[in-house]
Amino acid sequence: MKLYNSLSHKVEDFIPNVAGKVSMYTCGPTVYHFAHIGNLRSYIMEDVLEKYLRYEGLDVKRVMNITDVGHLTSDGDTGDDKMLKGAKREHKTVMEIADFYTKAFFADCAKLKIKTPDVVEPATHCIDEFIKVISSLIEKGYAYEAGGNIYFDTSRLDKYYVFGDLSEEDLEVGVREGVEEDGNKRNKADFVLWFTKSKFDDQELKWESPWGLGYPGWHIECSCISMKHLGEQLDLHCGGIDNQFPHHTNEIAQSEAYIGHKWCNYWFHVHHLNTASGKMSKSKGEFLTVSLLEEKGYDPLVYRFFCLQSHYRKSLVFSWENLDNAKQAYQKLASRVAALIKAAPSQPVAPSEEAKAAEIAAAFNEAMGSDLNTAQAMTVLYDLLKADIGASRKLELLEKFDSVLSLGLIEAAGKLTEESSGGDVPEEVLELVRQRKEARAAKDFALADQLRDKISELGYAVRETREGTEITKK
Ligand SMILES: [Zn+2]
Q1: Which of 63, 402, 31 has the alpha carbon at shortest distance from 218?
Q2: Is residue 26 domain-resident?
């Protein structure tokens, strides 16, 4: 496939180091709060990328860190410690906060059909690796001690700002939140690898190190966790565009100083979710979470659908009105799929449809292979629905495309059928039907039968059909 590479500023052929295999790293969440849907946009698009690489037959190994230590409110080394902030806010320990918000993050991901990466590693599990790499950087002269902390010396590199194209404003990471600059740094761009002396005296998590009791900086964790699981040559590194500087710039600096050669070939960055007036932030207006979307009556997959309608390298403008439009379009699509499911038994797959089906599948590949053009892939989905082929073949292709897009259209269609056949079925019965569906999905047929009996006691019969679950009053 062709993919835009933030390092070269060009769309390039994606060629992994080892044919047929892809090593992929994703910066994970800092688990001190619920995830904002703007951040989840990145995870959705990265999920589509991973699934498309798999769809192309590549063997992907994807690794993600969980930041549970060391990340300050400014992405530079200033501001407050985010984890500590969360712990104080909720009167809990840092580890309780980390545990709670890690689970919340994966619960959101599940609702958005984001696959869990093959390896998920919390930073606090890798202290030995951090110490090993930092020690080596000091030995090689790339890091120094000042005021008790260990810093990376950016002046030792031929080129530090590897992504280029940075404006003055982008570079002022330390200053933008009105916090004082760290006087220990030899160069303005230097960054902390290990904190020992810091203003966070009440930092709960500290470890012994050759430089004293302390804790790691944020950037070092991604380099170490990536190298631990994916080796010293990485194919693809992903993240939100705001991670490009300083986080990814620092990751490259320390990784390449450590290994002595190029580290990662392709950098994939997802752009911001904005409001009409500019960048969304946690401090301005409503804090948008998956739970809030649900409270307001949106299926989380409507948000996924909304994200897929535009290209990942363009800012996406969020408004409730835009989301309503996506909701309507999604429901319309689901009802067309419901009609297909209904028609499928009378329209079996015919060999004469193959040429047309292949043409549509090729158009899907063309769209996704062109720098992950999901908006174009959605157009192909609509073309498929209009195409002159039978319902069964359409459904087959739809399921195939949805293994990448993960819009859950067949499930959504099933729900619609259920609602229409349900009519005024009491909520109690619908809840039992939902539980029975989950039991069947988990292949717990004994429980499914018990639930059917309970439904029957309440005066309803339930039956699985191709169109979904049929509920009738006895
Ligand atoms: Zn990272």
Answers
A1: 31
A2: yes
- 288 domain-assigned: no
Closest of 415, 450, 408 to residue 432, by C-alpha? 450
> Ligand 1 mean position to 237 CA, how many Å?
9
Q: Tell whether 255 and 348 lie within a shared domain.
A: no
Task: Say whether both 40 and 141 belong to one domain.
Answer: yes
- CA 474 to ligand 1 centroid distance, Å: 57
Tokens 């996704």 belong to which residue?
Answer: 368
pLDDT tens-digit readout, 119-130: 999 999 999 999
Task: Give percent of the chain above pLDDT 70.
Answer: 90
* Ligand 1 centroid, distance to 83 Cα (angstroms): 16
What is the mean pLDDT of the segment spanning 137-142?
98
CA of residue 360 to ligand 1 center, whole Å: 37
pLDDT, tens digit, for every residue of 297-333? 999 999 999 999 999 999 999 999 999 999 999 999 9
Q: How many independent structural domains does the chain possess?
A: 3
Residue 30 CA to ligand 1 centre (angstroms)? 10
Sheet strands (E) in 196-310: 215-216, 234-240, 264-270, 273-275, 278-279
CA of 276 to the centre of ligand 1 (A): 28
**333 CA to middle of ligand 1, Å?**
36
User: For the whole prediction, is pTM greater than 0.70?
Assistant: yes
Give the Å distance between the CA of 301 and the centre of ligand 1: 26
Task: Quote the CA–CA distance of 272 and 313 in Å, as a whole number.
Answer: 9
- Is residue 356 domain-shared with residue 225, that is, in the same domain? no
The candidate with the shortest Cα–Cα distance to 236, out of 40, 36, 45, 29, is 45
Both 265 and 320 in a single domain? no
Structural domain span for residue 184: 2-270
Same domain, residue pair 465 and 394: no
**How many A from CA of 211 to the centre of ligand 1?**
24
